[in-house]
Amino acid sequence: MAVGIRTRQLRKIYTSPPPMAAGAARGVGFSLSKREKPRERIEIVALDDLSLEVAAGEIFGLLGPNGAGKSTTVGVVTTRIRPTAGDAWIGPHNVWQERVAVKRLIGVVPQRPNLDFGLTAREILTFHGAYFGLSAAERHERANALLDRFRLTDRANQLLFGFSGGMMQRLSIARAMMHDPELLFLDEPSAGLDPQTRLLLWDIVREYHGRGKTILLTTHNMEEADALCGRIAIIDHGRVIALGTPAELKRSLPGGFLVRLQFDRVSEEMLQGLRRLAGVSEVRGSDDSGVDVYADRGGSLVPEIVNVATAAQAAVRDVHISEPSLENLFLHHTGRSLRE
Amino acid sequence: MNWRTFVALLSRDAHVARRNIIPLMLQTLFQPMLFVFVFGRIMTRSGLMAEQYKSMLLPGIIAVSMVLSGIWAVAMPLIAEFQFSKEIEDRLLAPIEIEWVAVEKMVGGMLQALFAGLVVLPIAWFVMGGVDLDGASTLSLLSIALLVALLAAGIGLTLGCSVGQTQIGLMFSLVMAPMIFFGCTYYPWQALAPFPLLQRIVLINPLVYASEGFRGALVPHFPHLSMPAVTGSLIGFDTIFVTVGLRQFRKKALG
Ligand SMILES: Nc1ncnc2c1ncn2[C@@H]1O[C@H](COP(=O)(O)OP(=O)(O)O)[C@@H](O)[C@H]1O
Ligand SMILES: [Mg+2]
């Protein structure tokens, strides 16, 4: 019985700086004269009326740049972050009101591994199983299977101190699967993984999905979203800016190809000239010398662009052609690159 | 409330504590034991202190040992687990209300505090070469021990959810040290009679009631605060620290 996720107009406003920045700003220790500097009111809008619906049994991707609100979304729907307003449901359960019921259904792989340093790799899995009420026999059987699947068996009985980032990431995923949750959350699961392990992860995700489970993963890697997800929501500044299957999203892009150009100078006359070229669907002058051309072809357009530029007494400084991709889609909607 | 999860959480802490029990015990009990040896043995043997001082000292030592190890057992892991790496997250995602995670931490701390008391009582007794415990009442010893263990766990929870890793040293010198020295651990409350103001002020220190409570339970014929007053105050402090601790925990646990 797979379960879905629904959110309605989620808002999250943080009123303190992110933990890392706080540490840096305050330095070490504490200040005795707290009252001296009246705290400036901070308001970070992390989620801005975010509404989403993830169907039972799909692999759903949240794609967005750093700071878009992906982790906050995961935090809210996994009971860990209290939303400022709005509601979220996991299956039939309201996340904030029925937290225990929700926690039974979900497995969470956080963006940064939060593994228990008091335990060995195997114990991390078996204790996690115990929290979820598995019998001792089930715990050991599953732990062994997962350690094997994630290639951790040879380090199973060690504490984590010597573990690489990739090993911890794998263990963290194994732990989330330990109680066989109906819904698996993976927050940037492949961030620290080498290409080979990434492929292993993709296999495991597909296999898990094949057993009728729902998976929500966040990523800023288009390739990954494209390869794994049935549907994707592109989010930025805490809002959904595009939603659909990878193919739909790419089709929605004007033209499909994106030709990014740099000129020494740009004139309105030249932009008009570019718009008239065959196959061009949209031309945007960004700052004073950059121009983005959306078109249904790429390379064959370049000589014609050069001609238009020459006619307008401008010179092309730089050309970059990219094929239809989610990256371009993101750029189209936000004017920014996903990788920034 | 989900017992299987609660027991699993507790056994996780027990499992980790077993690995650290020796260093933890040394850390919290070594200094009180030195004190016992110097003041309870050397000073009394040499006649610098009256023989009776041993009877005053033993209950105070039990109180300080229990309180210190209970606080330490709860606060230190919490500070580490809430830090940066957020190790506690896995337990906050266990299928149980998060408050029970805090309760579990306190139960673990109480068990360690009781264990410390159980270890210290006979050791201190032997180090001092025997202490007269004729009037001791098992029932009041047990009830005081439970109240003191809960006090330590409550303070540990409060500190553990309020203090950052960089402030542990500060916490020790600014909170724990004065608490120990003005906690009537090494002298009975009555000994402060020549300092009426100080005698009043120390009453805000919960450790005073722990020490005096153990005096009332172990050596009732020596002067000590009245047992109903001690019991009432301990219950009051327990309630305060558990309440504040749970509130801090909730605040810290939910972003
Ligand atoms: N605990 C926090 N306190 C304050 N601000 C936060 C906190 N966590 C995230 N933020 C801020 O909220 C915004 C969204 O962050 P996040 O959800 O982590 O985005 P993403 O996962 O997409 O990178 C960012 O501006 C980030 O700085
Ligand atoms: Mg994130």
Compact description:
The complex is a heterodimer of chains A (340) and B (255). Chain A is of the alpha/beta class and 340 residues long.
Order of helices and strands of chain B: HHHHHHHHH
Largest sheet of chain A: 6 strands, mixed
Strand content of chain A: 25-35%
SS element count, helices of chain A: 12
Gap between N and C termini of chain A: 39 Å
Helical content of chain A stands at: 25-40%
Mean pLDDT of chain B: 92
Number of domains of chain A: 2
Q: What's the number of extended β-strand segments of chain A?
A: 14
Biggest interface, chains and residues, is: A-B, 33 and 32 residues
What CATH architecture of the largest domain in chain A do you see?
3-Layer(aba) Sandwich
Sheet with most strands: strand arrangement of chain A: 6-7-8-3-9-10
CATH fold annotation of the largest domain in chain A: Rossmann fold
CATH level-four homologous superfamily name of the largest domain in chain A: P-loop containing nucleotide triphosphate hydrolases
Write structural notes for this entry:
- The complex is a heterodimer of chains A (340) and B (255).
- With 340 residues, chain A is of the alpha/beta class.
- Chain A contains twelve helices and 14 strands.
- In chain A, α4 packs across α5.
- The two termini of chain A are 39 Å apart.
- Chain B has 255 residues and is an all-alpha fold.
- Chain B has one domain (3-254).
- Chain B is 75% helix and 0% strand.
- Chain B is elongated, with a radius of gyration of 18 Å.
- In chain B, 45% of the residues are buried.
- Chain A binds chain B through residues 19, 28-30, 75, 78-82, 99-100, 103-104, 106, 108, 110, 112, 114-119, 123-124, 127-128, 130-133, 175, and chain B through 2, 4-5, 8-9, 11-12, 15-16, 19, 77, 84-98, 164, 166-167, 170, 254-255.
- Bound molecules: adenosine-5'-diphosphate and magnesium ion (MG).
- The site of adenosine-5'-diphosphate (ADP) has 15 residues of chain A, from β2 and α2.
